[in-house]
């Protein structure tokens, strides 16, 4: 396992070690908490020496993501190097039937992925759940709100970027990680954020459960690359809005 220089993963060098806890957990553990037999990170000397100071071996963390996203036989001929992150990301998006432009930058593609999960979950909500989600997000005119209107509003938030986009990313990723790994992110303790996350957890869990059935048929690597990509999307946004990340308000 060796890191291949990747401009889309270099930002991990700037992430705090504690912020990478969930990404490392995705790489090293299954949903039931058992150790993954295919990961190499925990066997390295630098991991054993510095864990849990993940910043000391961020390149090895990135290398694991690259290698899980690559064909293992082909990796042998690359000197133990995997593929670049964008290939891992687009492969996950194709598996999850995300509508994306392969020429877009990775941040836009990551948002397309999160929006797909969000859209699918809203489509599974009852009318009462849609109203509850809209209310928790501060939407007015609840009597006329529809799933389509809510999806459109969220798409606008992602498209515009900014701190609201980070908030939405946090909500979706927290719910996804609960469904995928059995544990959510450590939230900031904001009451409004927690309410929205609670509304989203059930429907997103249904979407992910259906996806996992397909993943079981497609290969074990997706059990690593899907949560890892979603974690990386979150870390990219958290670093981008680091100065405001502890001041989440709706």
Quick summary:
The protein has 250 residues and is mainly α.
Can you tell me about this structure?
By secondary structure, this protein is an all-alpha fold. The chain has one domain. It has eleven helices and no strands. The longest helix is centred in the last third of the chain and has 28 residues, at 191-218.
List descriptors.
mainly alpha; 250 residues
Tally of discrete structural domains: 1
Gross geometry: globular
H/E series: HHHHHHHHHHH
List how many beta strands DSSP finds. Answer: 0
Helix/sheet category = mainly alpha
Sequence stretches where pLDDT stays below 50 over 5 or more residues: 72-79
Helix content: 55-70%
Can you give the mean pLDDT? 83
Number of helices: 11
**Strand residue content:** under 5%
Set down the secondary structure blueprint.
Layout lengths: L20 H8 L16 H6 L7 H11 L3 H5 L8 H11 L10 H18 L3 H10 L10 H14 L2 H19 L9 H28 L3 H19 L10
Helix pairs in contact: 1-11, 5-6, 6-8, 6-10, 6-11, 7-10, 8-9, 9-10, 9-11
